[in-house]
Amino acid sequence: MNKIFSLLFLCLFLVACNKDGSSGTDCTTGTQAQEATGTDCTITAEPPLTDGTTGGTTDGSDDSSNDGTTDNDTGLPNEAYTFDVNIKFINTTATQQAKFDKAIDLIQKVVATEEFRSKVLNHTYGGKKTFVDNGGYTNAEIYQKILDASERLTPGNNNTMEMEVELYYANNSTVGYTYANSKRVWVNRKFFDGNTVGKVAANLFHEWLHKIGFTHAVSYSISRDYSVPYAVGRMMTSVSVD
After folding, report:
1. What is the spatial distance between Cα 149 and Cα 143, in angstroms, rounded to a whole number?
2. How many CB atoms lie within 10 A of CB 190?
3. Per the domain annotation, does 26 fall within a domain?
4. Are the CB atoms for 157 and 149 separated by under 8 Å?
5. H/E element holding 26?
6. How far is CA 135 from CA 69, 80, 141, in A?
7. 94 is a domain residue
């Protein structure tokens, strides 16, 4: 009899262990967020020092040596110089608006550089020219999608970065977040107030890259730093401009 009860208990235990025990994540379902600290959605201040070796990359790697990324005598495409920004700001003070305006100016200057184009086209992960979670696009196609600036909610290649931005305050680790079904981005004043113009620009660009279709993993991993929003967003602070 004791053996029978023991076997029944073991079976119940194994069934319980095979159930989906996931309890969710620190990030709200349906959102894409940048966070300063914590185990999930962490954003690092600087790019990682080593190439990632874990995580998934969708189709889109480009090992071609004849990709026009070096010794290009034709110069930057015209769209790099005409790249525009049209952001509707919600409830900002004059001081806050001035900071956002400087961030917008920086974004346009960065996009209009050969250094930015080179960084996007030559970005590598796992020894290949690719991004993590690249949506199946090559680096060159990702660069062109940035210049086209066609947001999923307002499609059309108008060469203009468009979205809404609203400031809020929360005493947590979230720098900013957005929803896939909204044109709006929410920026946390806890970080905005003390951030440099470069970091504000990086956050805006990160969130906007979600608007044109690029995502990243919710939970932090080294590979996530090589996703389009994280890697290209950081370029706003690493590219030299006058």
Report:
1. 10
2. 17
3. no
4. yes
5. none
6. 21, 22, 10
7. yes
Tokens representing 85 are: 């920004």
- For tokens 């400031």, the residue is 167
What does the DSSP assignment read for 185-196?
Answer: EEEEHHHHTTS-
CB 43 within 8 A of CB 36: yes
Write down the residue that tokens 């079976």 correspond to: 11
d(CA 5, CA 2): 5
Please spell the DSSP secondary structure of 155-174, one letter per residue: -S--SEEEEEEEEE--SSSE
| Distance set, CA 39 to CA 24, 171, 188 (Å) | 13, 16, 19
* Residue 196 placed within a domain: yes
Q: How many residues does the chain have?
A: 242
Per-residue pLDDT tens listing for the chain (242 residues): 554 444 444 443 333 333 333 333 333 335 666 655 332 233 333 333 233 323 334 446 654 433 434 334 458 999 999 999 999 999 899 999 999 999 999 999 999 999 999 999 999 999 999 999 999 999 999 999 999 999 999 999 999 999 999 999 999 999 999 999 999 999 999 999 999 999 999 999 999 999 999 999 988 899 999 999 999 999 999 999 97
Supply the CATH number for residue 82's domain: 3.40.390
133 located within any domain: yes
Task: Name the residue range of residue 141's domain.
Answer: 77-242
Domain count, the chain: 1
